Amino acid sequence: MSRPQPPADFAPPPFADPRRIGALVGLVGAVVFVFANAPDLTGTVATIARVVVILLVGAALVLLFGFSRWLGRFVVPAPAALVVYGACVVGELLLIRSGSVALDDSGHGGARPALIAAVVGLHFLPFAWAFRERMFYWLGSALMALGLAGLGAELAEIETTASVAAVLAGLVMAGLIVLYAAGLFAVPRRPVS
């Protein structure tokens, strides 16, 4: 049995829209990825990464709450979506913990940031189905690719690649949220009047 859905042109008020609130969680994650891993980068690269993520977060906040754009049809999540969400978060935490233990046991604890990026990416993929938001396919795929590349390079003894992958994951996450907030993933496309 499906839940009743609002009219196709309905959009919750910006400060009550769960999609926008969820984007805030993603922005916090992006900042954490960058600021937690930038110290491992050399020279001004760390400073540039921090400045860029702050600018991207600012742009996303303006687009999410200041000059709100149409994000696409709002779909009331089914109870199964909330179960998927909970299972993904629990699975994410378990994978990060067990993967971290395995990396530590093998002497590759430095690869943890890339592992986290890959697992965070993986946990976003089911959200695309559960919440009917195609942006999660892009976000999940990009973070998984960066995380797995960083993990592989770090395991091949190429130093700081895990941190580089995590910083890039944070920048990509913030950038995709800006595009989302600008309405570029909206289906159907229509401006908010």
Strand content: under 5%
Helix/strand/pairing category:
mainly alpha
Distance between the termini: 32 Å
Domain module tally? 1
Helix content: 55-70%
Total helix count?
Answer: 6
Number of strands: 0
Globally, the shape reads globular
Low-confidence stretches: none
Sketch the topology as an H/E string, one letter per element: HHHHHH
Query: Gyration radius, to the nearest Å?
Result: 18 Å
Q: For the residues shown, what is the average pLDDT?
A: 89
Main sheet: strands, sense, barrel: none
Structural notes for this entry:
The protein is mainly alpha-helical. It has one domain (14-181). It contains six helices and no strands. Helix 1 (18-37) packs antiparallel against helix 2 (45-66) and helix 3 runs antiparallel to helix 4. It is globular and about 55 Å long. The model has no long low-confidence stretch (mean pLDDT 89).
